[in-house]
Amino acid sequence: MRTMRFAAVGAALFLVLAGAGTAAARPLAVTPDTGTLVTGSPTFPFSQNKQNEPAVAINADDPSMVVAGANDNIDDEACNAGDPTTCPFTDGVGGSGVYFSFNGGKSWTQPTYSGWSARNCLGPAACVPQVGKIGTLPHYFENGLVSDGDPGVAFGPRPGADGRFSWANGSRLYYSNLTSNFPGAAAFKGFEAIAVSRTDNPAAAAGGDASAWMNPVIVSRQNSTTFSDKSQIWVDNAESSPLFGNVYVCWADFRGQGRVRPRRSR
What we know:
By secondary structure, this protein is mainly beta. It has two domains: 1-32, no CATH class; 37-265, no CATH class. It is 2% helix and 42% strand. The strands form five sheets. Strands 9, 10, 11, 12 and 13 form a five-stranded antiparallel beta sheet that branches. A three-stranded antiparallel beta sheet has the order 1-2-3, with no helix packed on it. The N and C termini lie far apart (60 Å).
C-alpha cells in the first residue's frame, strides 16, 4: 500500500511516495521574484536614501491601481550637514512618502510636489531648509503641519453630488499618518496628531499635481499632553454593507501619566 505526504522544505515543495520499499522525491520548479523598486530616492547620501515602515493598498474596484506609503527621508538634510547629531531629521521637513502603480505593481512612480525641503542640504555647511521639491505628501507646510510618517493607506468609493458613495463615481484614496506642528505654528494641541489626506484623482496625484489632494484633516482628539501614534486606516468597500464608504482610523493615544487608550474615528 502506498501513502502520499507533502513536505515543504525552504522554497521548494517535495512530493514523497513512501511504501513498498520505494521512495521518490521531486522538487517543483520555483521562479524567484526579484521585486520591483518602489521609491524614487537617491542611492546616497544618508539619510535621504532611507525608507521604513511601509504600507500598501490595492484598489478593490480596479486591482491594477496600487498605492504604497512609507517613512521616507528623501527631503531631509544629509547627515554631514551642520551638526551630525541631529541626523536623520530636519525640523519642519515631512516624511510621509507616497508611491503609485497603475499596472498591478509591475512599475511605480514617486511624485514630486512643493513644500518645506532640505534635500539640497548636502553638507558640510549647516542646513537652511526652504520651499522646494518634496517627495512626500503635499499641503502640510501650507497648513502649519509636518507629515511625520507611520502611514496607513486604503481605497474606497468616491461620493457623488448627492453625497452617496458609489464605485460608479470612481475611487478615493485615503492616507493616514502622524503629523506635528510646523516650527512656530499651532495648528493643534499636543505633540503628535493623526491626519488623513485624500485624493479622488490618483492618476493626477501620481503625476505630481498637488491640487489633486485635499488638505489634510486632523482626526485625533488632541489636548496639550496628547501624543498620537501608530495609525491604521480602512474603508468599508462592500456595496452590500449599510456602512459602505465609511472610513475607520485607529491609533495609539498617549495622554500623560503613561496611559494609552485606543480610539476610533469614523
